[in-house]
Amino acid sequence: MTRPIDLRRTAHLCIDLQNGFVEKGAPVEVPAARDIIPTVNAISTAIRKSEAINIFVQFTLGSPDVQSWSNWFARMPESQRPQQERFLERGSHYHQLWPDLAVMPADLKVEKSRFSAFIPGASDLNELLKRRGLNTLIITGTLTNVCCESTARDAMQMNYRVIFIEDATAARTPAEHNAAIANMRSTFGEVLTAKHLIANLHAS
């Protein structure tokens, strides 16, 4: 049984559900990400009816990141590098949140420039959470095994309570998704289904 969730100190982090990952034919297409959109929207709706908040996190890369994160870009094939360096630039089509993702004016948005939103200098997420006195994070989005897992691992080690939603996160393959879920369950956080989470939100 999951312990009660203090909704006044909770944020739902919806990670990287952007055109560049969700759209058919996108540079880093995650087909399963399209399937989780209704589930993520249901969680966001339940959050809005509570005292918790939604934060939509967008992967954002620009020219400075190509230099400061050169080892990652160097791993890419030469033919792919120009596109990979630019497809998540602020204002580009692929940078935008997926149009079927239900984002409301009261929801917050945060940009990050690394897989983990908690890497120093990658975003202002930690500062935002601390200012609001938040200590519990519900994680949804994509990719399960990259940005969602990286953010969750760092959050747990920074003493945030992590609640990872297994049917509201998506990876490119079931094997990658399941391996990340196993890591979460064994070490880094609580793993719940969306149905279980929403029931807990209503009970808290």
UniProtKB/TrEMBL annotation:
Domain Isochorismatase-like per the UniProt entry, residue ranges: 10-195
Pfam families: Isochorismatase
GO molecular function: hydrolase activity
Coiled-coil stretches: none
InterPro entries hit by this protein: Isochorismatase-like_dom, Isochorismatase-like_hydrls, Isochorismatase-like_sf
Top-level taxon: Bacteria
Keywords assigned by UniProt, alphabetized: Hydrolase
Name the record gives this protein: Hydrolase
Provenance organism: Edaphobacter acidisoli
Phylogenetic placement of the source organism: Bacteria, Pseudomonadati, Acidobacteriota, Terriglobia, Terriglobales
